[in-house]
Specification:
Blueprint: H1 7-12, H2 16-37, H3 44-56, H4 58-66, H5 81-111, H6 114-150, H7 154-181, H8 183-190, H9 199-207, H10 209-224, H11 229-246, H12 251-273, H13 275-281, H14 287-307, H15 312-333, H16 337-359
Helix pairs in contact: 2-3, 5-6, 5-11, 5-12, 6-7, 6-9, 6-10, 6-12, 7-9, 7-10, 7-14, 8-9, 8-15, 9-12, 10-12, 11-12, 14-15
Length: 360
């Protein structure tokens, strides 16, 4: 079904409202089907069918809708050769990423036991959810970034990179801190007491979402949009090599450490490649501010967490909200421009809705 997905088409024409509505609808329907049809271990075939439906079932809808955008007729005289090289580079890039993001699990299975693999996968699932939140912006902005470069609108391109990097760091840092400090509560709530052995692996893994978020911007938005896919390929290949060399025999914790180091290696190379752009925009980057605020809020969270006695769910909920409140206050105190813009937008919306209600 991935062959018919054509998600790239709807991203290219920026139909994100359709992508969002379609994804939510299929996910909600899949959850309902799961509750209705899966009741015992013997229902594993139904479970796998629903899983496929949730992941790629909407691709059939994509294929049908694509006919309203493109015409499936043979026109002839296609100039395919010019596209082969970048296509194969992107393919090799995806392959390298798949290798080093799955190599740790495979090697762990060979070197250790199924228990280690189970513990590691529990940690990785949490990391995957957080990563999807942090990297969501990269895919959305790629068509726009490519457009700016094609139109030679360099200032718009640079300003968008600044906003994307600041947004990514401002989100990835607090998420890493929260789930690092509350790793035990996270594992107990999501997986149970049997998975306490995955706590350290989770703490190490969540650190990786910081370099993953930044490389998602530098790799996809900057290098790919600039038609420099070969540098992205080299960076992820370097990460795969580092991950392979560092795959240790220390169970799930060692695998998490190897993968996290590999992500930082990828980041280091991409920073070096994009150093000219980063030097031009470094004044507008607020990374130091985000590190300071998230770090200080994290210290407060650590001391509160040690004294707050409750169930894992209540601790996660209460302490997570408390941390984000402290983080928000810290950003206000440092006069973060994005927080000010957001508050201004909310104020205008409330003011507009209030005036409309009075008019009615």
């Amino acid at each position: 079904l991935n062959m018919f997905g054509m998600n790239w088409l709807f991203q290219a024409v920026e139909q994100y409202d359709y992508i969002t509505a379609r994804s939510i609808a299929f996910k909600v329907l899949s959850v309902l089907l799961m509750f209705l049809l899966v009741h015992a271990e013997s229902d594993y075939i139904v479970y796998s069918a629903i899983t496929v439906f949730a992941a790629v079932g909407s691709n059939i809808l994509n294929f049908i809708k694509s006919k309203s955008i493109i015409n499936f007729h043979w026109y002839g005289n296609y100039s395919i050769k010019q596209h082969l090289k970048p296509i194969f580079i992107l393919f090799a890039q995806s392959l390298a990423i798949s290798i080093y993001t799955n190599l740790d699990t495979v090697m762990l299975g060979f070197m250790r036991t199924d228990i280690d693999v189970g513990l590691y996968n529990a940690a990785i699932k949490v990391k995957s959810v957080l990563t999807s939140v942090v990297t969501s912006l990269g895919t959305v902005l790629l068509p726009r970034m490519s457009y700016y470069l094609k139109q030679q609108r360099r200032n718009d391109f640079s300003n968008t990179v600044v906003k994307a990097l600041n947004f990514t760091v401002s989100i990835s840092l607090p998420l890493s801190v929260i789930f690092f400090v509350l790793a035990k509560d996270t594992m107990l709530f999501l997986a149970g007491k049997e998975f306490e052995g995955a706590i350290v692996a989770l703490q190490i893994s969540v650190i990786a979402i910081i370099p993953i978020g930044i490389t998602n911007i530098l790799g996809i938005q900057v290098l790919t949009a600039s038609e420099k896919e070969k540098y992205v390929l080299f960076s992820v290949s370097l990460g795969a090599a580092v991950d392979f060399l560092l795959i240790p025999t220390h169970g799930s914790t060692g695998a998490a450490l190897a993968t996290t180091i590999a992500e930082f290696v990828v980041l280091a190379y991409q920073i070096w490649v994009t150093r000219k752009l980063l030097s031009e925009i470094k004044v507008a980057l607020r990374w130091k501010s985000y590190m300071l605020v998230s770090g200080m809020a994290g210290i407060v969270l650590y001391f509160i967490a040690n004294k707050f006695v409750a169930s894992s769910f209540v601790r996660l909920l209460f302490l997570g909200i408390a941390y984000m409140f402290l983080y928000f206050i810290g950003l206000l105190m440092t006069k973060d421009p994005y927080i000010k813009d957001t508050l201004g937008t909310v104020h205008n919306i409330l003011k507009h809705s209030s005036s409309n209600s009075h008019t009615a």
